[in-house]
Write a structure and sequence with these properties.
Strand content: 15-25%
Shape: globular
Strand order of the largest sheet: 4-2-3-5-8
Distance between the termini: 30 Å
Mean pLDDT: 91
Number of helices: 6
Structural class: alpha/beta
Order of helices and strands: HEHEEHEHEHEEHE
Length: about 180
């Protein structure tokens, strides 16, 4: 897998989604380090990206209830198992499943494989609840895709919690997986 060197500024060229993510981080004065890489479509590739970043990249799952009336973005460590029953009980929502790709595009502006907490900038109707595993919440660094899985970045988790989320009008709900 090809992985670029570290950069500390937005690329000159990238997808519109990635450029919007970098522009927002820059406007909020959130410093980040980024790398470019081959499309990260499997967790094995994400593990290699994590090694290159020096911090574990998050696994982001876009979920919904059975009626598709409640939507959740679950941010968790890439290597932690996910059991819907455990999460359903914690958040009081039964029958969680993966939300349709069309809903992810509509609400987060992300395609499958590119789900990212940075996509919450597109959820202006606040229809998505952010669920964050405690391990991710308590970590010094946060790593994710910039809404495009050909790049990854890391920045301080405190900047996510104290600058980004308040700016986009979302809170995070801590869960124990």
């Amino acid at each position: 897998m090809l992985v670029s060197q570290f950069y500390t500024a937005a690329p000159e060229q990238a997808s519109e989604r990635a450029m919007a993510s970098y522009a927002l981080l820059d406007s909020l004065h959130i410093p980040y380090q980024r790398i470019e890489h081959d499309k990260a479509e499997t967790m094995a590739v994400c593990a290699a990206v994590s090694d290159a970043l020096g911090v574990r990249i998050c696994k982001n799952l876009f979920l919904c209830n059975r009626q598709q009336t409640a939507f959740y973005l679950l941010t968790m460590p890439e290597d932690k198992p996910f059991h819907t029953k455990d999460l359903s009980h914690q958040i009081g929502s039964s029958r969680l499943s993966f939300a349709p790709a069309e809903k992810m595009e509509e609400l987060l502006g992300c395609s499958p494989g590119s789900a990212s907490v940075l996509g919450l900038k597109n959820d202006v109707g606040h229809q998505v609840r952010l669920l964050m595993d405690r391990e991710v919440h308590d970590a010094e660094w946060f790593a994710c895709h910039p809404c495009d899985n050909t790049g990854s970045l890391k920045f301080k988790t405190a900047d996510l919690l104290e600058k980004f989320l308040p700016h986009v009008g979302h809170a995070c709900e801590i869960v124990e997986l």
